[in-house]
Amino acid sequence: MKIFKSIQLILFCSAILFCLQSQSQNNSTNLENQTDSIFSKYNNLSNAGLAVSIICDEKVKYSKGYGSANLEYDIPITSSTVFHIASVSKQFTVFAILLLEEQGKLSLDDDIRKYIPEVPDFGKTITLRHLASHTSGLRDQWYLLGLAGWRDDDIKTNKQIIDLISNQEELNFSPGEKYAYCNTGFTLLAEVVSRVSNQTFSDFTKSNIFLPLKMLNTQFNDDYEKIIRNRAYSYYKDSTGYKKSIFNNESVGATNLNTTIEDMSLWSLNFSNPTVGSKEIISKMNTPTTLNNGLPTKLGLGQFIDKYKGLKEIYHGGLDAGYRAYFSRFPEQSFSIIIFTNSRDIPAYSLASKVMDLYLKNDFKNSPNKETALINKKENVTKKDSIKYSVLELKEFSGKYYSPELQTAYYITSKENYLEIKHLRIGTLKIHPLKKDLFQDDGEWDFSNFHFIRNDSNKIIEMRFSGGGRIHNLKFIKQK
Q: Which pTM value belongs to this model?
């Protein structure tokens, strides 16, 4: 009788376990189906697409590709397709610097000029920490290159960028005074890694990060002609359909990491259980930066730190040419989402949010959605033509304006009620008066300001350009 009851108990427990396992499998299948539905519209080889990886409780729960990596040959995107991930690259650059710091070869609080004396002496110390937290005050390299006449599809190298920085005469603000997103800092950090290690930045990161983590399909690309197997091509759409979005950049540090969602999942897992680097390095990256006045920011090192519907999120996005990337970690929920796309019309962040809402819905608290917080609040734009100039008065602004820092010139001509500013490579832009000697574009250049300076004789002698929140007061001298 006792044996019979024992057998009954075993059978009962087995049945309960089977039910629980079946329920778990059903829940998992249902969750996977719901995730599939988020991306189903991209599951077509006639479209560019994306790759997605979801990591829960230290395991990869979802890893799939949708759409085409190459529209000319109908090559499907898979979990092993290689994507350029743009600014998501920055956290690897910081990690490389912190590895060298841990080896005693440098300090985050070192002056950048200790390693790169080509950086001008602005009279104020710019530390490696300032560079890694977007608080250096340096002008952004992409905006400077754009103003200098460089096109998006031009070849760009770290040497060219450092040469450009060496010509700068002023900062946007004092180091540590405020935050302004600045790619320049991460190009300089990559150069520091190279000079301290006596290796190329690409070689150092490969031998010290990627190979130890078994990220075998990951590399910083410092040669735009290099063949990268399984690479997704870059696209955009216009009224005629898909077009190639050319990417010839070989500058590394701020951007230009090529990787897969499989490899990136290994990187994500290293944050919670570091096998490369240390917990101290991870802690430094995850700690919010403070400004000179003691106020905290939402910046870690190479990462942003914020709340998403009440949950702590550590994240970074990226965009270059047609590539879009988003990598987000929720350390307290042991959850990460990785999305890489190869078309600029595929909204990586918006899609990531849908995944986050699906997987984390039981963890949300009452708190504003980060999506609201991320909206760029532009300064109130004064109504254009709020000041009226006569045709004769507008002619005073006409002339050639030269920037010694960029070694380039702009030509301004007056029209009936606005000015036309022209560059040989960039083309023509209309700017309208806001108030005396201050003009602004219509939004094509992110409502950039053009402030004209007069001498004691009331003659215009220079123009100062500010735009995008990343360049302030760049000087253009009016030529006689």
A: 0.90
